[in-house]
Design brief:
heterodimer, A: alpha+beta, Alpha-D-Glucose-1,6-Bisphosphate, Chain A, domain 4, globular, B: mainly beta, Porin, 2 helices
């Protein structure tokens, strides 16, 4: 009785390993695609400016905002981000151009999270009524080495422009490219968020609790 | 007076710390774990250990260096480093037996606080700021060490302030324990300073100074004063392949015992050069001249009051990954018969071959 009906035949068929039978091609292709997906995703492509330097740039429209308000918010953001406020942040009031040197760390793959080096870059930001433009460029890689005090510290003499810090120099190049891309995009996100929530907006969102002291009691 | 000054210094530090404590938040970095493991084989052509500098002293033996484990973390303006080692290189070969058991040794243990962009304060036990070479084999090109390294301080416990005077100019000043001790039993009386200058990219110079103000002598006649050392250290990355370095130092000490005034000193100069033929292979040399005057306490030079030695060390660095292999040949010669030959007779020169393997992680 068992195994004699069409229903049971179908059940037997379903119970067979997934890679056997007419669905196997699709399954195999799907499985290979799954394996390949992380590798395809890992390909990070940088954009380059006319001088051949890695560059992230965008014009961001923000209707109803004056250039002063935009620049004020950008300055607040830059002040929070730079390591040394006096040396790494320059603002030209006349041309309303902001230039800030920002940094982040790259970490090695493998045991724990050890810094591989520091990446520094320059953020240029200019504002006009209702829009601003950022340009992130001049990326430089400073390798880290452990110093006599047990701390990882940058070796300035061995710095390299990011354009020359290539796969040839580093077997984990793709991983580092991905880190760089993620770090920069995260900074862009924070910048946009910071400028969108400029002071007047923040004030609007703040609930002010007032008390009437003139009221008779 | 001295205690008052230190108390004032400490109070200022605490006040500054409190005032700055509510400063803006900075991104927290992860806990960083790192370290190294090293081992070596040495063969002295006299048939017994001859050259008295630090590390790699065992003859015709595959011997241990040390296991070095380091943890560090930065949280905003605050950071710490805990750096501990197990094994002869980090313990009995370098300093007096710190804990009396010879089991381990702390290389660095300190906390640091950035008072501003330009000023930081650090307190604890730190690798010395004096000299070119260090205890960790990962940071030295040669596996064996110089006489200047062996006879200088290894670590200094204390409190120091670092000032970034300009982008290429820095100053450190601090008060320290005696050399290489966790606890100073005869007052915190060493003063140290370092002036650092980078005239151009890749060229770093350090002028170091450390002196002790303790003029006391133990009942056995041993001075408690560590003496005064003035040290110049410089390194220049001339090209991506070629690096040159210099270490020059003078140490002196004066004390009186039993009505006799004693003056002793050493002076040394070491030149370093290494060339990277590829990312996997570099070859380097160290030339060192070292002289002592009226001292028998200087390691590895002479049992007589005065001594001199000239040492040539040629080392390779093979490997670009975590494992570095260091084959090395070293020739030392002296005006005194401070070495022994193959028959055990005193002689003025010694030759050794050493192969070190250093894994860093």
């Amino acid at each position: 009785m068992y195994g004699s009906t069409e229903h049971q035949k179908q059940n037997r068929h379903v119970a067979r390993p997934f890679f056997i039978g007419y669905k196997s091609k699709g399954a195999i292709i799907g499985f290979l695609a799954f394996l390949c997906f992380p590798k395809l995703q890992a390909q990070t492509t940088f954009s380059y400016n006319n001088q051949g330097k890695v560059t992230y740039t965008e014009v961001v429209d923000l209707a109803g905002m004056s250039e002063e308000v935009l620049m004020g918010s950008a300055l607040d953001f830059a002040r929070r981000k730079v390591e040394r406020k006096k040396k790494d942040l320059h603002y030209d009031e006349e041309s309303m151009v902001l230039r800030a040197k920002l940094t982040f760390l790259l970490y090695k793959k493998g045991f724990g999270r050890q810094p591989l080096g520091q990446v520094s870059y320059v953020m240029n930001l200019a504002a006009k009524p209702n829009r601003y433009r950022y340009i992130f460029t001049e990326f430089v890689f400073y390798p880290y080495e452990r110093n006599r005090y047990g701390k990882f510290d940058k070796v300035s003499s061995r710095r390299q422009a990011l354009e020359s810090f290539t796969a040839l120099a580093c077997k984990n190049w793709e991983s580092y490219c991905r880190q760089i891309d993620e770090q920069v995009k995260n900074t862009v996100f924070q910048l946009k968020l910071s400028i969108q929530q400029q002071p007047s907006e923040k004030e609007k969102n703040t609930i002010k609790k007032t008390v009437d002291t003139d009221k008779e009691w | 007076m001295k205690i008052k000054s230190i108390a004032l210094l400490f109070t200022l530090w605490i006040v500054a710390f409190t005032l700055q404590a509510q400063d803006e938040e900075k991104e927290e970095s992860p806990l960083v774990l790192s370290g190294s493991v090293d081992t070596y084989y040495k063969y002295d052509f006299s048939g017994e250990p001859n050259i008295g500098t630090s590390f790699g002293e065992d003859h015709n033996s595959v011997s241990l260096g040390m296991v070095n484990l380091i943890a560090s973390k930065e949280v905003g303006k605050v950071s710490f480093v805990g750096d501990i080692s197990f094994g002869p290189r980090g313990q009995t070969n370098t300093i007096p037996d710190a804990d009396g058991t010879g089991s381990f040794h702390i290389q660095n243990l300190y906390v640091s606080y950035a008072l501003s962009d330009a000023v930081s304060v650090t307190a604890g036990y730190m690798g010395t700021f004096v000299g070119y070479e260090v205890i960790s084999p990962t940071a030295n090109f040669n596996y064996s060490t110089s006489y200047l390294f062996t006879n200088g301080p290894f670590q200094n416990a204390g409190i120091k302030f670092d000032f970034a005077l300009a982008d290429n100019l820095g100053l450190m000043v601090g008060v320290f324990n005696d050399w290489n001790v966790y606890t100073d039993n005869n007052d915190l009386d060493d003063i140290g300073a370092q002036l650092s200058y980078s005239p151009t990219e890749g060229f770093d110079m350090y002028l170091n100074f450390i002196t002790s103000a303790n003029a006391d002598v133990s009942a056995d006649g041993d001075p408690l004063d560590n003496g005064t050392e003035i040290d110049l250290t410089a390194g220049y990355q001339i090209s991506s392949e070629l690096y040159v370095g210099l270490n020059a130092a003078n140490w002196s000490r004066e004390y009186s015992f039993g009505g006799t005034e004693v003056e002793e000193s050493f002076t040394g100069v070491a030149l370093y050069g290494n060339y990277a033929f590829s990312s996997d292979f570099a070859l380097g040399a160290r030339l060192e001249s070292f002289t002592t005057n009226n001292t028998t306490s200087t390691a590895g030079v002479s049992t007589e009051a005065d001594g001199d030695v000239f040492a040539v060390t040629i080392s390779g660095n093979v490997g670009s990954g975590p494992l570095k292999f260091i084959p090395e040949i070293r020739f030392d010669s002296s005006g005194q018969d401070i070495f022994v030959d193959g028959d055990g007779n005193p002689t003025g020169s010694a030759v050794q071959f050493l192969a070190g393997a250093v894994f860093s992680f």
